[in-house]
Amino acid sequence: MSNYAHLSQPELVRLLEARDRRDATRFGLVWEADEIERDLALNSDFVALDLDPALSVGPGPWENLIIEGDNFDALRNLRMCYAGRVKCIYIDPPYNTGNRDFVYNDRFMDANDAWRHSTWCEFMYQRLTLAKDLLRQDGVIFVSIDDNEIHALGLLMQRIFGEANFVANVIWEKRYSPQNAAKWFSESHDFIMVYAREKEHWFPNLLQRTEEMNARYRNLDNDERGVWKPADSTAQAGHGTESQFYILTAPNGKKHHLPNGRCWVYTEEVMKKMIFENRVWFGATGNNVPAIKRFMSEVKQGVVAKTIWNYQEVGHNQEGKKEILQLLPDSATPFDTPKPTRLIERILRLATNPGDLVLDFFAGSGTTAHAVMKLNAEDNGNRRYILVSNTEATASEPAKNLCRDVCAQRVRRVIEGYGDTPGLGGNFAYLRCRRISPENLAGIEHAQVWHALQLLHTGTLVPYDASREFQWAKDGREAIAYLPRFSAKLLPALRAALRTAETATLYSWQLSLFRQHLRSHRIHHLPIPEHLALKFGLRK
After folding, report:
1. Which of 62, 236, 460, 489 has its CA 20 to 30 A from that of 448?
2. Residues 240 and 143 in one domain
C-alpha cells in the first residue's frame, strides 16, 4: 500500500507544495539563463577542424594543436576526440570587469549591463561543463579569476565538479608595487581556483626544494649521516599522553624540565634511544635545550605547495607583459594583465608529468604552451598542449585575429627562437573550427574526416593526402585507415598495410563493399559519417 494512499486531496496538495518550496530553495548558484540574451555561439552543429599548413610549425606529425574558433565549438570537437584524456586544464577566462575584457556576441560586455553577471555565468557554465568531460579520472583544472566573479565561480565550479572535488583556492600576488591612487585598498592579488575531476585520484606533485631551504641544514657535529637542522623537541601539552611528561636527562647529566603547557615530542623510552643514536642535539657544550636532528637525507625531496604564491616565486603581471613584448616587439600587448610563464610553470609542475596532455581554451597570448615547452626542456619530458583562442573580432574591429597574430605567433617564436634566445623546438598544427549542420554532415570533407579520426585514435596529426587512395596511421600495434571510396585497385596495398598491424579500424563511406573484400577478426569496420555523428553526440 502506498505511503500516501490514506491522505486526503488537501493533504496531498500541502505535501506537494512543501516539496516544491524545498526544491526551489536548494542551496547553490542561480542565474537568469532564460532572461539573458542568448549566446550566439551556442549551437547544435557538428564541428570539424580545417588545417592551415602555412600557419602550422614543423612538418608533422603534429603533436600539439592551436585551434582558432569559439571555444564552445572547439570544446565540442575536443570532447569527441579527447574525452577523458586531458591531465591538466588551465584557463584564464574573462574576469567580467566591464572594462572591455569580456567579448560576448561580437561585442564587449558593458559594466552597466543589468544581466552582466548572469551572462558571464551562463557563458562559463556551457564551457566548463564540456571541459569536465575532457579530464582524466586523475585530472585537474586551474581557473584564474579576480574579485569580480570569484564568488560566482566558486559556486559554479561546485555545481559542475562537485563540492567534494574542491582542492584549493590559491592566492597569487600579481602586483609588486602598491596602487597609491586606490580609493579603498590597493589590489595586489588574483585567485586560482583548483578542482579535481575526482579528488581521490589526483594528488599534486611536490615542488623542488629551494637553495634557501637547503641552507637551513648544516652539520654542526660532523655527523656521518650528513647535514641536518634542529627541530623543536617539545609539543603542545594538550596533544601529548602521560608518557610524554618527564624530566629529560642529557648525556652530561643535566636535567631538562618541560616549559609550562608543553610535553616532549617522544616518550622517555624513545627519547633515550634517539639520544643513544645521536639524534638529539644539546649544543656544542652539551648544555643547550635539546633539539631533534632532522637529516636532509631523511626528509621528502620536495615540498608541499602552499596556497599563497608570491611574485618572487612565480612572477607578476609586469613580468608577463615584458615577456610578450620581448617575443612580439612589433606589436603592443593586447592584454592588460598577461600571466607570466613562471606562474603557469608552477601549475604544470604540480599537475603534470612527462607525457601528459595540457589544455587551455582561453589561450590568450599562448603562455601555457610556452610553459609546457620550458618544462619539457628542463626535464626532457614530452608533455603536449592544445590551445584554443578566438579571433576576438568585433563589429568595430572585424580584421582582429588574436589567435593567429598573437597566440600562434608567440608560440612559433618560442619554438624557433627570437632575438638572442634559442628556440625550444617542437611543433604545432594550426586548425580552424568549421560548423556543419547535422543535415549536411554527408557533405563533410575528406580532410576534415581524416583530422577527426587521427585525433580520436593517435592524438597526432598529418595532412590529408588527396593523391593517396587511402589514408593510414599507426599508433603502436593498432592502425586506422580512412577509405574515401571503394576501388579494387587499392585492395593489394591496403592488405599489405594491414599485415603490419595487429588490429586495424577501417572507416569508409561504403561499409558493405569493404567488409565483403576485407574479412578478419583483426579488422573492425565503421561507417562514415555515422560514426563521427555518434561520437559527437548527434546520434545514439
Report:
1. 489
2. no
